Amino acid sequence: MANRAYDVIMVGGGVMGCATAYYLLKFEPKLKVALIERDPTYAKASTPLSDGNIRVQFNVKENILMSMYGLEVLKTFATDMAVEGEKADVGFRQQGNLFIASEASQEEARAGLALQQSLGCQVEWLTPEQVKKVYPFYNLEGCAGGTLGHQDGSMSPLDFLLAYKRKAVSMGAEFIQAEVSEVLREGKQATGVRLTNGDVFTAGSVVNSAGPWAPKVAATVGVNLPILPTKRQVFVLETEARSEKILPAIFFPSGLYLFHEGAGHFTCGKSLATDPVGYDDFEWDRRMFEEYLWEELVSYLPDFDRLKVTQGWAGLYEMNTFDGNAILGEWPELKGFYLENGFSGHGFQQAPAVGRYTAELILGRPLSLDLSAFNASRILENKPLPESKRRII
Fold first, then answer.
1. Domains of the chain, first to last
2. Predicted local distance difference test score (pLDDT) of residue 244
3. Of 108, 175, 181, 310, whose CB count within 10 A is highest?
């Protein structure tokens, strides 16, 4: 049985863990940082199975600010993440995100827009006629207008993750393929982790960056996180609808969304009340699209009455059933145990801000962006901070 000592241990070597390791070593290059990841292929990790979207269109100030920081990071990401002269290429494109507002959702959409604009975001309100010009396939039925975020865009989520991983490792982080069986504690202090093979690694700070598996990690030290691993599916469509330019990603009031990938190719998805909960189901089923999404999609976009489902995939969301937002910071009842959990589908885009925030907390540095609104204490105090009254996308 091996014993090793570190300053910080990341339980989970996905995008959150790697981004946090990067910032820790950027601030303190001599730190001993361990990234423990059970599957370095990331075959079931949430980030590579996501849509890779980043948007400033949120209704909670801190969510907006996190995305604004992410967009700033992306401006120099290729160079900042370069290793041995090889720049990172994540294929970022700012095609924009178009959120359709119905009469029922218009008030909330306009309030969110006002907040976004007050923070300097490039988001505008579109009339139904303007929506039609931006997205010609949309039939405008039930449309009160829309918000178009010009800075919003998409990228390769796997390349984004791997860029952070390569950079963190090049800076001195130790990437370890292993599985954590439990977080260790002495009284009210986290002291390290035990692996499934019996090895013990000690550290003054342990970060739970395990994505959908975060509740399992937390439970080993008696912390009950309100997170469910929820299966979501994405469907790749080929249609006769054509556009010469890349259209904005479009989000409908029900939560149905559609990304234009070029020519007549699109990806589509939606959160359903019947989405399975569990860790073992990654099977993709085209019948879910045919039975639950196609009719609704055609009601919005009549030109999609003829299409082909060419492929798709399934992955896990870490759904925060408490309020749908991130759970961050040190667990109030266990010193040295930090959380980066519960992102409910928008964690990928928040990784730079969360990684920096967690690193600053651990090192006792001044906070570049105060994210205390998402601190774990709100779970114990029963003070939810929901993003939206009407939808979670």
1. 3-78+157-226+322-380 (3.50.50.60), 97-152+228-317 (3.30.9.10)
2. 86
3. 175
